[in-house]
Amino acid sequence: xxxxxxLKTLSLGVLVAITGVALSFFQFAHEFEExxxxxxxxxxxxxxxxxxxxxxxxxxxxxxxxxxIPENPDKWPRSLHARLVDVLSKQGAAVVTFxxxxxxxxxxxxxxxxxxxxxxxxxxxxxxxxxxxxxAAAPTGGSYGPEHSIVxxxxxxxxxxxxxxxxxxxxxxxxxxxxNQYWTFQSEGALSPPPTFPVVAYQLYGMRVFADFVRVLExxxxxxxxxxxxxxxxxxxxxxxxxxxxxIKDVFDSDPALAGDMIAEFERPDFPSTDGKEKLMLATLIxxxxxxxxxxxxxxxPPHTVTTIPYYRALHLGDGNESSLPITLKGKAVFVGxxxxxxxxxxxxxxxxxxxxxxxxxxxxxxAATAFLNLLEDKAVKPLGDNAYLLWIxxxxxxxxxxxxxxxxxxxxLTLLGLSALYLFGAKYHFTTAGTWYPIVIPLFVQAPLAFAxxxxxxxxxxxxxxxxxxxxxxxxxxxxxxxxxxxxxxxLKQSGEMVYGACLFADVAGYTxxxxxxxxxxxxxxxxxxxxxxxxxxxxxxxxxxxxKGDSFLAIWKAARADDSLRRQACLAALDVAKxxxxxxxxxxxxxxxxxxxxxxxxxxxxxxxxxxxxxxxPTGDTVNTASRMDGLNKYLGTEVLVSxxxxxxxxxxxxxQVGKFMLKGKAQPIVVYxxxxxxxxxxxxxxxxxxxxxxxxxxxxxxSWDEAKxxxxxxxxxxxxxxxxxxxxxxxxxxxxxSPGEPWDGVIVLEEK
Length: 755
Known about the structure:
Elements: H1 4-24, H2 27-45, E1 54-59, H3 61-67, H4 78-91, E2 95-99, H5 108-121, E3 124-128, E4 130-135, E5 148-153, H6 158-163, E6 166-169, E7 181-183, H7 197-205, H8 210-220, H9 222-225, H10 233-237, H11 241-254, H12 258-266, H13 276-290, E8 294-296, E9 308-310, H14 311-314, E10 333-338, E11 349-350, H15 355-358, E12 362-363, H16 364-377, E13 382-383, H17 386-406, H18 409-434, E14 436-437, H19 441-474, H20 480-488, E15 497-509, H21 512-517, H22 521-541, E16 545-550, E17 553-560, H23 565-588, E18 596-612, E19 615-621, H24 623-638, E20 642-645, H25 646-649, E21 655-664, E22 672-680, H26 686-703, H27 707-720, H28 725-739, E23 749-751
């Protein structure tokens, strides 16, 4: 059987784990993870140096001023672009992409110059721009509003498109969306989706490994290799690179296992050796075609983190002028487009994780260059796969839940804090070194706080439950108000106490010692348990509280701030009902009888905790308590059940009582007038009332020291009620006083030398 504590510990871990997994299926959780979690990882990592293999030629305001041309890049003279292409070709650029719109013809001479330059270079890729077409209002009952636009990708001006090596789209979402992803192939789910121009640039850049790519394909899928040319040369000559890439993509889409088989093949020891860079490029090409059409962008930093050359300065590369830059473009990929520290309202500006820090947006051309470099070094942001993600969330939830529940709140909280910091450090390390994206939001901002809060709440519920059990247990030993005091502040309990007016009821069993000798301890315990259940009930019914229990006796009190007749009445009624309860109880116990004596006295008492060291007891102290105990003992001499003091019974209506004398009790300095409480007036028969009157006359004669008269009257009373204990007591006392006079002066006080 699993221990309870271990079961509770596992329960919290499972709850936290399941909560994290459940949240993972909601879109908003993914959005928070992408916005906050990925953003935090970029912030912790900070900017990093971009590889030198890609260069951005920035179309910017500075260049427009220097060249004395319009700021709008769509209106720049195309002869200027022709000049740039020739410079880049002369510098040995491996591939050039233009993220500029060339939709309409301009100056015919300039267009022709640009087209000729494109043909001469043979390595330029133009972007397929995105345009919107407005549609008129829908007819009545139509599904769209008064004005509707459709966004579509179009080809550049045919003269230029036919002259370029290829054209490709690169559509990114506009603000207010943060750009975290891009398409490798533009339309997911479409048949033969077109490659985007960072991907086209990468395929052209890696043309030297294309032959190895085809050779690996022939090894694992000979029947598919025939669909591809042995090299890129023919596709470049026919300017059908885009078509070839679509064909390759269709091949991989038709066979999901192809990418894994190809990677396993070229990693075999007997595969013809290639250098590390070419091997990485081959693996990247395979995963590019066989992977998802969407990829996360691993930004290097804010705008111009990728090597950037202003357009006007790029025109002078290699010409020996003082304005030229000491930089080489040989073998590099060049991306031409709008790239400056731009604000959101500018065209082709995008919001990224680094926009939060510097307040500016990045140009689309630099995002394209970043995507290209991510492919080149195989360091795109790679989130965990679905199965790995869920397993990780499940494991982390179990771990933090178990840790928080296993230790105390303070230790668990500190351990959780340290573990979360370690998790964040590890996530940052893997993100920095390999681009691996471990989830942040759900583990650290949901599961960790949930585990701690769950532990606090669980401990609170358990503590509260334990306190309730403790209160219930303590209520068997001390009054409820003391339990409340303990719950509030146990430290002040030693000094706590109050002077109150109280009525004390003391009761014990006659012949308890003899009874205990006849029974086993267990039998006696069971019997007394039932006895106290019967006698406590009347006390609680009349508002009293039992404050002390010892052996066969108990002490109950009623308290008030000042003298209160109703308080004394409740104590007297409880005393009568205790006597009745004992008679009923004795009727249920075969061959056993527990005669009970009750004494009641009222006055000032101190109610509080008495003791020392590590042991205290709650209860009343003072003369009132001692007197109630002595009166309980007086029952033994008078043969009565319930005796009350004059202070307790005076001014109490509805009760029948008779004065049984004035006694100097053992240990007392002042005499006390004692009454026998006989019952409620409406419950007592006339004979009992008459006997009370007869006893009063007899007691008066006794106090006059008329011993014979008193003896006669007490004798007559004993004949009326053979169980009249006080009458028998005074008969004996009359005989004693006839022999030995109490002396003069005598005020009727009877002195008792024993308890």
